[in-house]
Amino acid sequence: VTRGANTGRVGRTYEHREKHPGSHEIVHLKDKRGKSFATRVENVFIIGTGNDALVSLPRGNGIKFSIIEERDGKH
Predict the structure, then answer these.
(1) Confidence class of residue 25 from pLDDT cuts 50, 70 and 90?
(2) What pairs with residue 40 in β-bridges?
(3) What's the predicted TM-score (pTM) here?
(4) Max Cα-Cα span within the chain
(5) Nearest Cα to 49, choosing from 3, 17, 12?
(6) 37: Cα within 13 Å, side-chain hemisphere
(7) Mean confidence (pLDDT) of the chain
(8) In the β-sheet with 36-40, what is the strand arrangement from edge to edge?
(9) Which of 5, 41, 44, 56 can bridge 25 by disulfide, Cβ–Cβ 3.0-4.6 Å?
């Protein structure tokens, strides 16, 4: 995800797409931990096929952790 509140997250599974005539289209994604999130379709681009990323990912592999999980280092 390139922009918005979910910047930097990596979705593993494309769940569905909401089409809103005259407005933005929304896609729902699921990350590696099973957490679902939604963003505009303009903010998403494909970096691989299946579970294989064709580019190297930063530390954490694009998974968003809660503040407590980050503090405790559970990644």
Answers:
(1) very high
(2) 26
(3) 0.71
(4) 44
(5) 12
(6) 21
(7) 82
(8) 13-18, 26-30, 36-40
(9) 41
In the three-class reduction of DSSP (H, G, I as helix; E, B as strand; rest coil), residue 65 is classed as coil
The phi and psi torsions of 13 (rounded to 5 degrees) equal -130, 130
User: What token pair was written down for 34?
Assistant: 């099973």
Please list, in sequence order, all residues whose beta carbon lies within 8 angstroms of the beta carbon of residue 55, skipping any fewer than 6 positions away. 47, 48
Only one residue has tokens 């569905």, namely: 16
* Cβ-based neighbours of 31, under 8 Å, separated by 6 or more: 9, 10, 11, 12, 37, 62, 63, 64
Q: Hey, what amino acid is at 39?
A: T
